[in-house]
């Protein structure tokens, strides 16, 4: 990481932005580790209400899948779900809508920041190492057919 940051500075990069929202210990860790780099640290989302931020991201066109779920926070069935308003409605009150406390992790596959979508389909959901993981597979006609068949089986 030190080499990458030094190379970035050599190419005129003056700062690094982080998407942290409210965890003080995580921000402090980043500040301590980055202190010697000479780069300016930016936290543009810091302190934003996460429900409003999640809704803003969805309304802005962000498309993502939940790829990892911590079953201590959410039911494993959330793995493989779309990050959308339906998800936000289904989350328990104690879960952060942006997964900021590690409730879930996502894979963003489309949005205004993308030149084109990364076409993936949700594959098998497995539990290992205390987490539920949803595989993502390159989307093809056969993966779409398999997904349709699975949805029909579930009724």
Explain what the structure shows.
With 155 residues, the chain is an alpha+beta fold. It has two domains: 2-42, no CATH class; 50-154, no CATH class. Helices cover 32% and strands 24% of the residues. The protein has helices at 2-10, 24-34, 50-59, 85-90, 141-154, and strands at residues 15-17, 40-42, 63-69, 104-110, 120-128, 131-138. The strands form two sheets. A four-stranded antiparallel β-sheet has the order 4-3-6-5. The radius of gyration is 18 Å and the shape is globular.
Q: Roughly what percent helix?
A: 25-40%
Mean pLDDT: 92
Give a short account of the largest sheet.
Answer: 4 strands, antiparallel
Count of helical segments? 5
The count of β-strands is 6
User: How many structural domains are formed by the residues?
Assistant: 2
Structural class: alpha+beta
Categorize the overall geometry. globular
Unreliable sequence segments: none
Radius of gyration: 18 Å
From N to C, what is the helix and strand string?
Answer: HEHEHEHEEEH
Percentage of residues in DSSP E strands: 15-25%
Strands of the biggest beta sheet: in what spatial order? 4-3-6-5
| End-to-end Cα distance | 48 Å
Q: Layout of SSEs?
A:
Elements: H1 2-10, E1 15-17, H2 24-34, E2 40-42, H3 50-59, E3 63-69, H4 85-90, E4 104-110, E5 120-128, E6 131-138, H5 141-154
Structural descriptors:
two-stranded parallel ribbon; 6 strands; four-stranded antiparallel beta sheet; 5 helices; single chain; 155 residues
How would you concisely characterize the structure shown here?
With 155 residues, this protein is of the alpha+beta class. It has helices at residues 2-10, 24-34, 50-59, 85-90, 141-154; strands at 15-17, 40-42, 63-69, 104-110, 120-128, 131-138.
């Amino acid at each position: 990481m030190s080499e990458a940051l030094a190379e970035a500075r050599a190419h005129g990069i003056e700062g690094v932005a982080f998407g942290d929202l409210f965890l003080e210990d995580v921000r402090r860790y980043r500040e301590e580790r980055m202190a010697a780099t000479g780069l300016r640290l930016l936290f543009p989302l810091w302190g934003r209400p996460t429900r409003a931020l999640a809704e803003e991201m969805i309304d802005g066109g962000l498309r993502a899948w939940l790829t990892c779920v911590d079953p201590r926070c959410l039911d494993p069935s959330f793995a493989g779900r779309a990050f959308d308003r339906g998800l936000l409605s289904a989350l328990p009150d104690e879960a952060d809508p942006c997964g900021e406390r590690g409730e879930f992790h996502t894979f963003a596959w489309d949005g205004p920041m993308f030149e084109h979508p990364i076409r993936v389909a949700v594959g098998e959901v497995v539990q290992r190492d205390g987490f539920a993981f949803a595989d993502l597979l390159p989307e093809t006609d056969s993966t779409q057919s398999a997904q349709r068949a699975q949805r029909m089986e579930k009724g």
